[in-house]
Amino acid sequence: QSTWGISFHFYSPPMPPQLKMPPLGKLLSRLEIKASKQLSQNFLLNVAITDKIAQLACHQDKNPYFIEIGPGPGALTRSLLNAGAKKVIAIEKDPRFLPLFEDLIGESGGRLSVLISDALKVDELELATKTINPPEGVSVPVHIVGNLPFAVASRLLMKWIHVTKPASEKPVGCYVASMTLMFQKEVAEVHLRQSLQYHVTHHTHHT
């Protein structure tokens, strides 16, 4: 009598080497950096939360390209790189965080670039094209991610909605394929109400 057995082997793509960086809390204390009320800053430092957000964002694409808005001290930036981001282009208005990114840029192996600028004034697709330099005629999905400052969250969202395209349209060059954004609860509720109102109005208009 013979016994047969079947074994299944599931392939998981190798994860990039995890960054070896000191805890952000200690770095912020050493540099005496506190959240600025004037810039509506709210630091997201819980690694379990940033890792979960990064995994959700990276699930959108294989070896994704990211534009991160308002990285602050860089907690989510670290998680995106650890989760397998091919490139993170961070746009930060507050120059106080530059010392925190100097070591991270080196540790990332060229997968991180940082621009100190106001995201409201930046053309994200132009920046992505210059940074990534995709081959002519090739579609390159870029994903926007960020913990948005309260004061400018709505304006940033409206700006990006107009340039987001589905992959089915087969856009050429860099295009915004998805957004993974964190809002203050009150801002999120306002946009949810507006979205529901739009769908109800739109549906009524066409029936």
Care to describe what's here?
The protein is about 35% helix and about 15% strand. It has about 210 residues and is α/β, with parallel strands linked by helices. Strand 2 (about 85-90), helix 4 and strand 3 form a beta-alpha-beta unit. Helix 2 (about 45-60) crosses helix 3.
Low-pLDDT runs of 5+ residues are: 5-12, 196-207
Largest sheet: 5 strands, parallel
Mean pLDDT: 81
Question: What is the 3D form?
Answer: globular
Distance from N terminus to C terminus (CA atoms, Å) equals 70 Å
Q: What sequence of helices (H) and strands (E) makes up the elements? A: HHEHEHEHEHEH
- Individual helix count: 7
- Percent in helix: 25-40%
Decide which structural class fits the backbone. alpha/beta
Count every beta strand, where a strand is a DSSP E run of 2 or more residues: 5
Quote the beta fraction. Answer: 15-25%
Quick recap:
The chain has 207 residues and is an alpha/beta fold. It has helices spanning 24-31, 47-58, 75-82, 98-107, 124-132, 153-161, 185-205, and strands at residues 65-69, 87-92, 112-116, 139-147, 173-182.
Keywords:
207 residues; alpha/beta; five-stranded parallel sheet; 7 helices; disordered C terminus
Compile the SSE list and pairings:
Blueprint lengths: L23 H8 L15 H12 L6 E5 L5 H8 L4 E6 L5 H10 L4 E5 L7 H9 L6 E9 L5 H9 L11 E10 L2 H21 L2
